[in-house]
Amino acid sequence: MNPLLDLLQPYPFEKLRKLFAGVEPAPVPPIRLSIGEPQHETPALIHDALREAFGGLSVYPTTAGIDALRQTIASWAMRRYKLPSLDWATQVLPVNGSREALFSFAQAVVDASRPAPLVVSPNPFYQIYEGAALLAGARPVFLNQTPENGFGFDLDALSAEEWSRVQLFYVCSPGNPTGRVLSLDEWRQLFELSDRYGFVIASDECYSEIYFDEAQPPLGALEAAHQLGRHGFERLVMFSSLSKRSNVPGLRSGFVAGDARILAGFLKYRTYHGCAMSTTVQAASIAVWNDEQHVVANRTMYREKFDRLVPLLSQVLDVSRPDAAFYLWARTPGDDAEFARKLLAATNVTVLPGQYLAREAHGRNPGQGFVRIALVAGIDECFTAAQRIVEYLK
């Protein structure tokens, strides 16, 4: 077996199962707010589109995807990020959800023959970034995102020598778990570092369509690049998905877009990787990317949850509305893992300890003392969970 597999840590939910072993939950209906799996109803238009496209199951799909899907994605991205152009033929590729692409991208980008390659990740982070770096033969390095730095990147935490070995930099904006959105100035700093040291930026934007002000959607990487005059998106690739936007995590449909040169290499890798998207899923995806009505309705439900829950939970927890996404990053009274375990026993509400989403770096684990609360259940169920938490802590 590949010895690099031994470097992989258990996934957060494996740790959670061990933490909860032997706990007898309170005798009330369980409410699971630990995993970021959308539980809103899948729009009917997706069911209809899949039924109409069943004939696509009889053919092998191409890795590059059908032209119509790439054209649809390019048009959506141009509308969403106010781009004057995005070449569907060279700057867009469909992928089987952002998770698959975020992992495989590192395998295509990292040159393990160069001395001691590094991959930078936010901390806390989506664990796929770490696993992708390790299995690509690189060492993951973490930039702590803490209340003290406004949950931003402490770019001074790495030395010039370390920056010279960075080959890939994972960004998550809106962030998991904090919901923070990078500003234009922060993007400018990252682009300047990328120009200086030559690393590629992978911008994970799977939460980009969950936000609270319809007039102010979160700034995206391609949008920031365009505003800063980087019209070819040099060394930049963004990752998006229908999972959160349209409540279809099981569809496994997303896309990557950006630097045409990098995507040409990524396409070559994917041809051998065997990860072509079913033509049936591609046809359904066209219908979904072309419809915004269901996305607005989805945001409305999340907005109502935050409007109702934040004032309630803030009575007992240090918590506030994020910039975007569907998480609350709540400071806990005492150890976060012990808090989650006792909360399950007392309320049958499941939350995720923050320390499971982070690694110790620069002298601390920035997830310790926090829990991630995923407001993915229905409005009434989320409100019931919040009431139980308040009663428990009071």
Summarize the structure.
By secondary structure, this protein is α/β, with parallel strands linked by helices. It has helices at 12-20, 44-52, 67-81, 97-109, 128-135, 160-165, 184-197, 221-227, 242-246, 260-273, 279-289, 293-313, 336-347, 379-393, and strands spanning 31-32, 92-95, 118-123, 139-144, 166-172, 200-204, 236-241, 254-258, 327-331, 349-350, 352-353, 370-374.
Outline the structure in words:
With 394 residues, this protein is α/β, with parallel strands linked by helices. The chain has 2 domains: 134 residues, Aspartate Aminotransferase, domain 1, CATH 3.90.1150; 247 residues, Type I PLP-dependent aspartate aminotransferase-like (Major domain) (Aspartate Aminotransferase, domain 2, 3-Layer(aba) Sandwich), CATH 3.40.640.10. 40% of the residues lie in helices and 14% in strands. It has 14 helices and 12 strands. Strands 2-8-7-6-5-3-4 form a 7-stranded mixed beta sheet, with helices on both faces. A 3-stranded antiparallel beta sheet has the order 9-12-11. Helix 7 links the parallel strand 5 and strand 6. Helix 3 runs parallel beside helix 11 and helix 12 packs parallel to helix 14. The radius of gyration is 21 Å and the shape is globular. The model has no long low-confidence stretch (mean pLDDT 96). Keywords: Aminotransferase, Transferase. Pfam families: Aminotran_1_2.
